Structures are given as structure tokens and as C-alpha cells.
Amino acid sequence: MDVLLQTRGLLSLPISPRNRVTLSHPSLTLKHRLFSPNPKVPPLSTNGFPKLSVSGRKERSLFLCMAEAAAAFGEPESEKPKILGVEVATLKKILPLGLMFFCILFNYTILRDTKDVLVVTARGSSAEIIPFLKTWVNLPMAIGFMLLYTKLANVLSKQALFYSVILPFIAFFGAFGFVLYPLSNYIHPEALADKLLNILGPRFLGPLAIMRIWSFCLFYVMAELWGSVVISVLFWGFANQITTVEEAKRFYPLFGLGANVALVFSGRTVKYFSNLRQHLGPGVDGWAISLKAMMSIVVGMGFAICFLYWWVNNYVPLPIRSKKKKEKPKMGTMESIKFLVSSKYIRDLATLVVAYGISINLVEVTWKSKLKAQFPSPNEYSSFMGDFSTATGIATFTMMLLSQVIFDKYGWGVAAKITPTVLLLTGVGFFSLILFGGPIAPVIAKFGMTPLLAAVYVGAMQNIFSKSAKYSLFDPCKEMAYIPLDEDTKVKGKAAIDVVCNPLGKSGGALIQQFMILTFGSLANSTPYLGGVLLVIVLAWLSAARSLDTQFTALRQEEELEKEMERAAAVKIPVVAKGEDGNGSLSSVPLLNPTTGDSSSSPSEASTPRNI
């Protein structure tokens, strides 16, 4: 007899059914329990709650969870407390993460603006140092960090790994402001660099400048790594660990709202301390005082990040992931690299990151060379960068408000393609002004600007629009793509992509520029070719985004299916039989031998099924 359920009062069966019920087993699926010739359904007591006594060949006691019984009777679950339509449990995750992102981006803005001021305006250096610095210093240190991080990830817990990475950053920036910079005149080999420059010639200005101002270059690299390591690996890795995809789609774009408020405030902070020199007496190094104040803020924000991370780990529960994720064995460094390279998903993610780095670098170095020509002193340069960061924060804040609409209405794929499109269009505008600035100089003069100042402003607008699209759309898209992956791929994939591929993209752009300069004689002469390279890179970027969209959608569907199957396998269905009076009641029924079944029944005795 096939047992089929009916909703009448509670749950009912045909009159005088043959008693047939078995112990539920976790390995049985919902489909098996419903449609098996000998369905195994747990009986309930008359009140539907914990204890169940049954009579027959063997009397047993069975305990059912009250929540399961309530669910069986169709009782609604109690509504979880909400604030402004958001569950309190979700807010306990989202608010601390937003504050962490605020502090991290606040620090990054100060560090990013300061690193450019240090290496571009230093004596014996210029913007031409940046391609060499990114290629020959930043990239090797990023690769070294990735190898170290991969090894530490195998031996340390997640919390120990977080603190082991972020605390050295905090210590270095504090030491730079109060120790290394004040001693820079004593520890920098100025005389040796001048002597080598006279021997080797001006073409070696960039490499020699790295040696000349080595402590500034070290600060530059650590500031770059703060963006790659603390933002991409530590923060986003932690956010992906404690949020679901549904929460990510809703709140990841909103993280940027708080973060880009940080850009506005940190931009004002940089401008305020950069203007301190105006209020100081003669002979006082205003930049040294500004640097000490800003590094003190960076250290304070760093400790705030550590506190928020500690609080979330101790007071916020982790989401339930699919239990069918493959647990990968611990891999060595070379095995990890081979594994990551063999994954098409990871390769497409890497393409996105490398393409962004190359594209933005092709424009940024040219713009910074114009910027130094317009603002030669450190304080003027830093003050302009403060205004630039504030404008970037406002633009990104606006884009963040639109990004949630884009994700909800058009999905991940469209959102991932907006950033390369914006970067291509604004880059073409900047290069066009560089190429045709001479003929339109009279028109520019009518607005009270020189061609140089116009190039500075247009380049700034290009950077603002590109970075706002990156922060509001590109970064959330990239981080969402990690969520469906298993833990091992997620941790090591992020380390490889965010720590190595990010500087690899910037170094790739720097190598392209170095090649163009050596081939065509100057950066200005190579501008048309750089525009062509930008077009090719963006097309490859769009192709990878399209491929990743397909794979991401498939992984999400697979994960949702696994969760549904796990929930279905955990369902326990109570059986209610009709009494002689026709009313549904929970009657005592004997348990069958789970191995032999009930041999007394026959197909002819099966009752007529009723509709559910």
C-alpha cells in the first residue's frame, strides 16, 4: 500500500489503514520517503510532540523535535526581529563590516596620496620612477608575499593569519612617520646615486632613483600592498566567509557607501595636513609634521580594524554553507599554483584583475607626469591629491547608490562589463586631449586654463570615473565571484589573484610603457599606440567577464540545488490516520522492521490515493 498524505483538518489517511511506518534515516531523501513502495514515515503521539509510544511486534519510544512537529502541522515560524526591514542577525554582520571597510579605505586613501607625493616630488626623482618601481620592486615583493601567505594559510587559523598579516603593516607605517622619514637625509645614498647618474646617463634616472630614495620606495610598495592585501585578501576574504550570496548582492554595493564617505573625509584630512605649512614658522619641515600626523591616524585606524575583526569573530555566527563542498587536501606552494592555473574560473578572474591594472596604469603614469609639472612642491601636490580623493569619494558614493539597482535589474554580468566600458571611453578622451592639445589651445585659453592644466583636470576626471566604477561595481562583482568556491580555492585563489595579479597588471602596464618609450623615444610619441593597446586589453577584459558570468551562474545554481537536497533530506513527515468517525487523529501504529518491511500487506490492499 502506498501511503499518500491528505490535508483534512490536519493530515489524514484512508480509513483503517494498514499500519506501516519505519524509522527515518538521514540517508533517505524526501523523494525516497514519499514514493517508495514501503515508505518510511515516523508516527506521532496524540499531542504531536516529543514522546511517541507505538504497539505491535515491538514497542518503542520515538522523540520528535517540537519544531518539526510544528512544521508538520503547518504552524508558521516565529518572525525574526528586524530593524528597518533587515534582520538583526544580518545587521550584526553588515555594520561592523561596513566600519572595517571605512577604516581600511580611509587608511588606503592617505597612503595612496602620500606614496605618490614621496616618490614623485623627491629630489632626483620624477613620475618616470613609477613604471620601474612597479615592475622591479612592487611585483617581486607581491609574489614573495603571496608565497608566504600561502604557506601561512596552511599552518595558521584564519584569525591568527589575519593578525599576522595586518600588524606588520601598522608597525611599519608608524615607524616610517616617526623614524625612517626624519632620518631620510642620513640613510639615503644621495652622493652615490649622483655619481652613478653622471656615469650611466639620464636614461637610468628611474632605476637609480629607486636606490636614491629606497625608504620612500619601500613606503610606496607597502602602501600598494595595503590595497592588495588588506583590502582584497583580508577584508573581502573575511566578508565572503561570513556572508551569503543573497546578503552580498544586497549589501556589498552598500559597503562602498560608507567606504567612500571615508574617501571624502580622508581627502579632507590629507588636504588639511598638507596646508599646515602655511601656519608654521620659517625653517620648519611642514611635510614631516604632516606625515607624522597622518601616520598616527593610520595606526589608530589599523587598531580599530583589528578590534572590529575580533568583535565579529566572537559575536557573529557564520552562515551555513553547503556540506557537499569538496574538502581539498592541504597543498604545497607549487601544487597550489598549479591548481589555480588549471582552473578556468580562476584564470578568468585573474584576467579581470590584470586587465584593470594594465588599463588604469596606461593612463595614470602619463597623468601623474603632467601633475608634477603643474604642482612641483610636495605640499601642493598632496593638497591637489586630497581634492582628488574627495571628488573620487563623492562620485563613487553616487555610483554606489546606482549599483544596487544595476545588480537587481540587470544582474552580475552587466555590472561586470560597465567598468571596462567606462575606462575605455574616458581613456580615449584623455589620450585625445594629449594628442590634439596644441590645436585646441586657443579654445582652452578662453576658459582661463593652459593645455597642461586642462590635461591635469581631464586626467583627474578619467581617474575619478574609472575608480568610482571600480569601487562600486568591479570590486563587488569580483568578490561575489569567490563566494560559491570551496574554502581552499577561495583562500589561495584570492591570494594569487589579489596579491600577485593586481601588481602584475600594473607592472604589465609599466612594461608596455617602458617598451613604448624605448621604441618611440618618448611617452608623448607613443600615445597613439598606447590607445590601441588599451582597446585590445579592454576587449579581452569584456570577453573574460562574459565567460565568468556563465560559470558563476552555473555554480550558484549548483549550490542552491545542493542546499535544497540537504534540506529535503532532513525533513521528517508525520503520519495521521482517520478514525472511524472520519476525523483525522494521530493513532498508535507499530513500527516495522526496517530491514524486512511488512510482509503481511499485499498490492490488492492498497488504498485509493487522495490528492494532497
TrEMBL record:
Signal peptide as annotated in the record: none
Compositional bias (Low complexity): 594-612
Keyword check for RNA-binding: no
GO cellular component, one term: chloroplast membrane
InterPro entries xrefs: ADP_ATP_car_bac_type, MFS_trans_sf
Cellular compartments annotated: Membrane; Plastid, Chloroplast membrane
Alphabetical keyword list: ATP-binding, Chloroplast, Membrane, Nucleotide-binding, Plastid, Transmembrane, Transmembrane helix, Transport
TM regions (residue ranges): 94-111, 131-149, 161-181, 213-239, 251-273, 293-316, 383-402, 414-434, 515-542
Region (Disordered): 578-612
Family according to the record: Belongs to the ADP/ATP translocase tlc family.
PANTHER family tied to this protein: ADP,ATP CARRIER PROTEIN (PTHR31187:SF16), PTHR31187
NCBIfam families: AAA
UniProt name for this protein: ADP,ATP carrier protein
Species of origin: Flemingia macrophylla
Source organism phylogeny: Eukaryota, Viridiplantae, Streptophyta, Embryophyta, Tracheophyta
